[in-house]
Amino acid sequence: EDQVTQSPEALRLQEGESSSLNCSYTVSGLRGLFWYRQDPGKGPEFLFTLYSAGEEKEKERLKATLTKKESFLHITAPKPEDSATYLCAASGNTGKLIFGQGTTLQVKP
Amino acid sequence: GAGVSQSPSNKVTEKGKDVELRCDPISGHTALYWYRQSLGQGLEFLIYFQGNSAPDKSGLPSDRFSAERTGGSVSTLTIQRTQQEDSAVYLCASSLNGAGSGNQPQHFGDGTRLSIL
């Protein structure tokens, strides 16, 4: 069964304290690994798509990486405005997006 | 350059009433998806449209739930005889190509927050 698991569930960082969020996936025939950011009361906002192991993508303080079993979202020197829930999703042979439960990040000034 | 638009943003209704939720996808996007997000839960897939057809309805929780899409654009999700367990945020997303490719990002609206009293 296709499955996506994110850890940790919640993460508290001080401003400037770098860290990583983990997304482990079990998907038959990975077609894409997606990262989203969701703010309270809003829909998920698309961040990155990764297609194959070894691929990396960057946007401002965020960098996403992909291996054959997991993806990491690295946050470098975070700011309070980076506080949000980060969602990981994978699509495989079914084409359907399977979402993880999310990691809620709080960055304190 | 509008994104995905959903209406209403909030809906409060009494148990047993019917509700209609609307989604206007990004122009040119052929695929449209409905999800449900309950408090503290992940996104639960409901239904997928490719054009006006729904190849995958596997996530609809019961026969009280139905959806349609017209003109390859606007979609309506209808919940009949609402129950308290239907309370959730209903999110709509669209993508350039369908789920058959599986490699196109989905772009989400801000959802309809549905509360059943």
Q: How would you portray this structure in words?
A:
- The complex is a heterodimer of chains A (109) and B (117).
- In chain A, 0% of the residues lie in helices and 58% in strands.
- Chain A is mainly beta and 109 residues long.
- In chain A, strands 2, 4, 5, 9, 10 and 11 form a 6-stranded mixed beta sheet that branches. A 5-stranded antiparallel beta sheet of chain A has the order 1-3-8-7-6, with no helix packed on it.
- In chain A, a hairpin with a 3-residue loop joins β7 (62-66) and β8 (70-75).
- In chain A, 36% of the residues are buried.
- The model of chain A has no long low-confidence stretch (mean pLDDT 95).
- Chain B has 117 residues and is mainly β.
- The A-B interface holds A 31-32, 34, 36, 41-46, 49, 51, 87, 89, 91-97, 99-102 and B 4, 33, 41-43, 45, 48, 56, 91, 93, 98-111.
Labels describing this entry:
heterodimer, A: 109 residues, mainly beta, Immunoglobulin-like, 5-stranded antiparallel beta sheet, 0% helix, B: 117 residues, 7-stranded mixed beta sheet, 4-stranded antiparallel beta sheet, 11 strands, globular
